[in-house]
Amino acid sequence: MKKLYFTPVITGEKEAALRAEVRSFLDHYGAFNVSNIIDSWSICDPELSRALAEKGWLGMTWPTEYGGGGRSYLERYVVIEELLAAGAPVGAHWVADRQSGPLLLRFGSEEQRQYFLPKIVRGECFFAIGMSEPNSGSDLASIKTRAEKVDGGWLINGSKIWTSWAHVCHQMITLCRTAPPSDNRHAGMSQLIVDLSEKGITVRPIITLAGEAHFNEIFFDDVFVPDNRVVGQVNEGWSQVVAELAFERSGPERFLSSYQLLEAAIKELRETNLMQQAEPIIGKFVARLMVLRQMSLSVANQLQEGKLPINEASVVKDLGTSFEQELPEAMRLILATEPRSSANGGVARLLSDSILKAPSFSLRGGTREILRGIIARGLGLR
Amino acid sequence: MSELAQLIEQSATRLFEDFSDSNAHELMEAGQFPETLWSDFLADGWLTTLLSESDGGSGLGLAGGCVLMRLAGYYSVPLPVVESLMAVYLAAESGFTVNDELLVPAIISEPLKADSEYTIRGVPWARHASSLLVILSSNNETRVSMLSCQSVTIVEGQNMAGEARDDVTINTTQLNDSQSLSGIDIEQVKSWLALGRAAQMAGSLQRVLEMTVEYANDRSQFGRAIGKFQAVQQQMAVLAEMTSASICAVDAAIDHLASEQEWELIACAKITTGESAGYAAKTAHAVHAAIGFTQEYPLQLNTRRLWSWRDEYGNEAQWSAKLGKHCFQLETDNLWSWLTTQTS
User: Fold this and answer.
1) How many domains does chain A have?
2) What residues make up the domain containing A262?
């Protein structure tokens, strides 16, 4: 049984100063270009991403030699949680900053780092995640998209699905089968960086039940990828994907997706004088949020120490997405407001948006069942 | 873990792992005090360990004390660890001289009438104590009186774990002789006791998790260990999540003792451990099935304590209401800024 470590972190003056700087930036930035602020990290605003890049808030933890900020994971944590709490539409650069860049730093070639990282830092290069396929969701190792070796590179055929912002992103790290399936089903896969403007790529939008068009299905028809765009070792893609998960699953986006509703509910309850009966419910959710922040900060600190706390990250994501899904369920029972999709903002709209978006919270980035399976393995049950 | 915490853990584990009274639990449940275990506890110097060295302690303070309390929870130690350490600490802070006799805190939250009888409900371990440290608030000042248990009427009661929770009737004139607990608010005293209980609960949750994992790996049905079934694994994963959240919340509250965020983080710790306790007990018993429902099997030592402790020193609804009220009192739109000060 592996122990789960969540040593609490106390942030200091450096983080406090940075927090104040982010708040001041947001105060001066003005209204965001979107009407829906629930789950703001799934909403894309390249203009905001470039403004953040100018502040040095993309690639914050990366070495300065690649244009990165050379700052700590705690500092990055402060910046991203401030942006999320403010409902900032940070979706454009989110994947590149959170996991593609760190993946290249860990497994990429020197040429890849020098080519991509400065562009990401400048807000000029957005990445998509190319993992799921129509017949491979939780069972990712069953992917069929294949890359065949040809002279000077690889030819990709197949399709990927649920790819957020593929129509806006420039590159996609695409998990492909590069060797036929064998007894070791995790062997024979590779990660290839695909330029999404390349010939042979078709992007088809998929509209969510909430009416949004960030998802896509992508088709590859003999798409050529040069040899120098393979990340890490050929056929070792699986272990690289697993390493990505500690970055992907532990951040504050895993519990702040519906945070805007909590703030608005408190305001509404105060204005409608429904405070007293709401106190225990508000307190309960605030306490959960406080603990989630402590746990997520602790994981950020472990990343800073060079660890890969994959089990801890799964814990944060499972508890966090349960929190952000249960929040609208609890708020609707204490508010005297019905959800309204037609409302132009306000608590009625936030309720509607968070209820409609909530199902995806525990699907993306590893389902609840998959996460619990990982945790069970850490306990020594599998 | 800090070096100090490690030292406390090593040395207390020796005492708690293998009680000198093998029948300590039976004694306690029969309403008696496990005297041998208690004398070993005293002999190791734990009673005064929170006090500064000049007061005859080892300077662990509340934070170090919580490490010991968590361990006492892990091992279901049938002694008033939280109460005795806290009472000695508060007595010393109030200027009383402390000795090796059992002293327990008794809190009065209501205003009192002069020269009348008053019953303090559910005072932990009162029947075994030589004195009570009665703490109340009077004219915005925290006052502390030391009452001999010979001078009060005790009606015995027990919580679900068989721990003494006695009703103590005093005459309010007995409180005329009191000391000021200067600089410490009664609400703060209550929150420290809640933290002590939360620390015990965090330890107990860890033990329940470990016992349940071990059992799920050992017990075989349908030809394989029951822990191999996904239905079991999914519940166990949540048990591990809630346990680690509880430990983290308690650790964060310990780290923030004596800071401006002290009570909020303690509230958070008591809420988290309280919510986890019910789930942990339910899941552990589901996995252990009938054997875990017996008195003979030791799981009940932890689960009966968890069921009892979640309601003591404020349950999760009470602490949530207090925290929620505080959120409503913040200036408009200030929730986020308040939240972020909780980790600084």
Assistant:
1) 3
2) 240-379
Judge contact between B200 and B69, C-beta under 8 A. Answer: yes
**A236 pLDDT above the threshold of 80:** yes
Contact B105, B133 (CB under 8 A): yes
Residues B108 and B197 occupy one common structural domain: no
- CATH number of the domain where residue B119 is located: 1.10.540.10
Q: Which residues of A touch B216 (CB under 8 A)?
A: 381
Helices A259-271 + A275-304 axis angle, to 10 = 160
- pLDDT category at A36 given cuts 50, 70, 90 is confident
Whether B26 and B147 share a structural domain: yes
Give the range of the structural domain holding residue B155, as residue numbers without chain letter.
3-180
From chain A, pick out residues whose CB is under 8 angstroms from the CB of B256: 10
Give domain status of residue A188, yes or no.
yes
Q: Chain A: nearest CA to B335, how far in angstroms? A: 7
Single out the residue of A98, A81, A97 nearest to residue A40, CA to CA: A81
- Flag if A372 and B324 touch (Cβ within 8 Å): no
List pLDDT tens digits, range A1-33.
Answer: 889 999 999 999 999 999 999 999 999 998 887
What pTM was estimated for this model as a whole? 0.97
Q: Residue B339: list chain A partners with CB under 8 A.
A: 286, 289-290, 293
Interchain CB contact of A266 with B (< 8 Å): yes
pLDDT, mean of residues A206-211: 94
Nearest CA to CA, how far is A255 from chain B (Å)?
14
B117, two tokens: 């009888």
Q: Are B304 and B295 in contact (CB under 8 A)?
A: no
Q: Is A194:A174 a contact under the CB 8 Å cutoff? A: yes
Span B236-260, average pLDDT: 97
> Rounded to a whole number, what is the distance in Å from the CA of B278 to chain A's nearest CA?
15
Whether residue A114 is found in the same domain as residue A147? no
Q: Do A279 and B325 touch (CB under 8 A)?
A: yes
Same-domain pairing of B116 and B239: no
Question: For an interface test with A, which of B6, B206, B210, B241 has the most A Cβ atoms less than 10 Å from its Cβ?
Answer: B241
| Averaged pLDDT, A135-144 | 95
